[in-house]
Every structure is written in C-alpha cells, then in structure tokens.
C-alpha cells in the first residue's frame, strides 16, 4: 500500500530558501561547483564553520529568526554520496533562446551527474545550439561535473513531451531521475531541495509544487484555479495528496521509474497524469512534495500547454485510474 509522507515543513518560501542557500554557498566558497570531491570538501569545511555564527548572520540577512531556518541539509547543503546522483531528462521543442542557459544551470547543480536531452524535432536552431554546447563541453573545466555524461538524442518527427520523456527515461543511469523543461520557468537549483526532502523523509518520489505556499510562483488566478481543479480530481482518482500534480519538477528513484517506464503511453502533457497514476499504484510507494520557485512565461514567449491538454488530463485520470 502506498504512503504519502507529506510536504516539506521547513516553512521557507521558495524565494527565501533560494536566498538562504545562496548565502551559505557564498560564505562557504562553493562556487564554482567544481568536481564532486571538491564540492564535498567545501561542504565539510562549511559545516564545521556553522558554529561560528553563520546561521545567525544569514537569518539576520533574510530578516527572520535563526530558528526559522532549517539545518544546512534542509537547504540542500550536504555531502553527496553515489546514492544521491541524479540523471535529468530534458525534453525540448523549439527552445533555441533558452536551452543553453538551462543546461548551464543544470550542470551547476552538485547532484546532477547526467543530463539526457531529447530534441523533439525542433524546427528552429535548437539542434545547432545543442551541438555547439556539446562541443564546448568537451573542452570545458566543468566537464568533470558530469562524470556520467551528456546524452543528446533527436526525434526526427515531433511527437510531444510525453514521447520525449519516454525516450529519455530509457537512457538514465543514476539512482535518481529528475525532469527539467527546456525553458526558464523552473530553477534547476530547486533539485537540491527535492533531493534534501527525499533524503530526510526517505521517500521514493518528490514533486516540486508551484502552489504549496500562497506566494509560490507568479501564475494568474485562472491558471491556479484550473490547476487546483485538475489536482483535486487526480488526488481523488489516485488517492494522493498533492497540491500540484501538473508540475514539471519530479524527482523519482530510478528503480521505481523503471518499474513503470515501459508502460507509459502518453505522447503529450498527459504524461504528467499518467506518470502519477502509474507511480501511485506501485507497492509501498512513498511520495512527498515541497515548494519550488516558478517564473511563468506567457504563450507569446513560447508556452505550449493549452486547454485541450486540460481535457486530456481529465481523460487520462479515467483511463489510468
């Protein structure tokens, strides 16, 4: 029987969490990230210095009480082990303006050691941008940050986000699998928050919620209302307790993902509902969520999900229930 553990209860909004994390990183000299060994060495030095008053100074900087701040591990600051490594699948279609920026930020996330990009037959210059970025990676100092590599796959015919994810899931090699959209709505640094929740609560799946806290994200009211309705229907259908079932950000134990990946069928955004449905049926599955930052883009800026996808989401609930 599945057990949903619940949400991250640190109380920090995504904005405060990010500011607190950056403050610790600045004080610890954690940027640039460097290799795993360098990162862990810096983390050890940072943790040994906390008694010197860093916690108090960061709280004063943020305008909160020190007791309101989680321990450093709750801010994504912990020594990484092989069990913490993340493969990130990036489905991309016509994102020439943002794809390189997104990949650069992903490569800076300490736990990310493999990136699998699936170019879903983009009609703009996305493919050329990927090839150029891949070539620069070979000679860059932070290639050591991706010991398990960068995989770039190409669909010759556009099939949709779900199809791109299914292709990417077949190439992941790390203990955890994350998903990253190729635009800049989601901040890759939040993957460390998802990982910290997974470690602390010993769960198999963590969803990053745009709506868990009132100030999360910048979505208009109609978007929040529609998402809330779909999420409530999904919770009723699958006996879950999420606040944002349509979120891109999911961190899943790869062993759990592989148990359902071969059964996935949805080609477009219905994959979000189908994946939730299939994961929720796994024996003993443990699921949680935590707030994440979200910078919504407009349709004029390239947003692709639409009303027909909302109807498809409802259809998927009935089909995969």
Provide a compact summary of the structure.
With 321 residues, this protein is an alpha/beta fold. The protein folds into 2 domains: 11-75, no CATH class; 82-320, Spore Coat Polysaccharide Biosynthesis Protein SpsA, Chain A, CATH 3.90.550.10. The chain has helices at residues 14-28, 36-49, 54-62, 99-107, 126-138, 161-169, 190-201, 221-238, 254-261, 271-280, 307-320; strands at 3-7, 86-92, 112-120, 150-155, 176-179, 205-209, 250-253, 286-291.
Highlighted features:
eight-stranded mixed β-sheet; 321 residues; 8 strands; single chain; alpha/beta; Spore Coat Polysaccharide Biosynthesis Protein SpsA, Chain A; 2 domains
pLDDT < 50 stretches: none
Number of domains: 2
CATH topology of the largest domain: Spore Coat Polysaccharide Biosynthesis Protein SpsA, Chain A
Count of DSSP helices?
A: 11
* Overall shape: globular
Approximate helicity band: 40-55%
Structural class: alpha/beta
Strand order of the largest sheet: 1-8-6-7-5-2-3-4
Mean pLDDT: 85
| % residues in beta strands | 5-15%
Structure in words:
It contains eleven helices and eight strands. With 321 residues, the protein is an alpha/beta fold. It has two domains: 11-75, no CATH class; 82-320, Alpha-Beta Complex (Spore Coat Polysaccharide Biosynthesis Protein SpsA, Chain A), CATH 3.90.550. The radius of gyration is 19 Å and the shape is globular. The two termini are 15 Å apart.
């Amino acid at each position: 029987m599945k057990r949903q553990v619940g949400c991250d209860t640190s109380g920090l909004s995504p904005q405060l969490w990010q500011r607190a994390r950056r403050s610790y990183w600045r004080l610890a000299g954690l940027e640039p990230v460097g290799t795993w060994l360098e990162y862990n060495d810096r983390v050890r030095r940072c943790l040994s210095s906390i008694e010197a008053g860093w916690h108090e100074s960061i709280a004063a900087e943020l305008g909160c009480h020190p007791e309101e701040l989680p321990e450093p591990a709750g801010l994504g600051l912990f020594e990484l082990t092989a069990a913490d490594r993340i493969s990130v699948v990036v489905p991309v279609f016509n994102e020439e303006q943002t794809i390189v920026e997104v990949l650069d930020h992903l490569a800076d996330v300490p736990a990310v050691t493999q990136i699998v990009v699936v170019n879903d037959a983009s009609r703009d210059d996305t493919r050329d941008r990927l090839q150029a970025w891949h070539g620069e990676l070979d000679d860059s100092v932070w290639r050591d940050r991706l010991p398990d590599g960068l995989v770039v796959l190409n669909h010759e015919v556009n099939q949709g986000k779900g199809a791109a994810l299914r292709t990417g899931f077949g190439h992941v090699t790390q203990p955890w699998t994350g998903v990253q959209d190729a635009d800049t709505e989601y901040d890759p640094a939040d993957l460390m928050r998802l990982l910290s929740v997974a470690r602390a609560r010993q769960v198999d799946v963590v969803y990053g919620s745009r709506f868990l806290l009132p100030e999360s994200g910048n979505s208009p009211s109609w978007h929040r209302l529609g998402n809330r309705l779909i999420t409530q229907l999904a919770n009723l259908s699958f006996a879950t307790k999420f606040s944002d079932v349509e979120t891109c950000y999911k961190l899943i134990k790869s062993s759990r993902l592989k148990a359902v990946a071969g059964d996935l069928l949805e080609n477009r955004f219905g994959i979000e509902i189908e994946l939730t449905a299939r994961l929720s049926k796994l024996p003993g599955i443990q699921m949680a969520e935590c707030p994440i930052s979200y910078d919504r883009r407009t349709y004029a800026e390239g947003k692709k999900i639409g009303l027909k996808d909302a109807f498809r989401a409802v259809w998927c609930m009935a089909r995969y229930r």
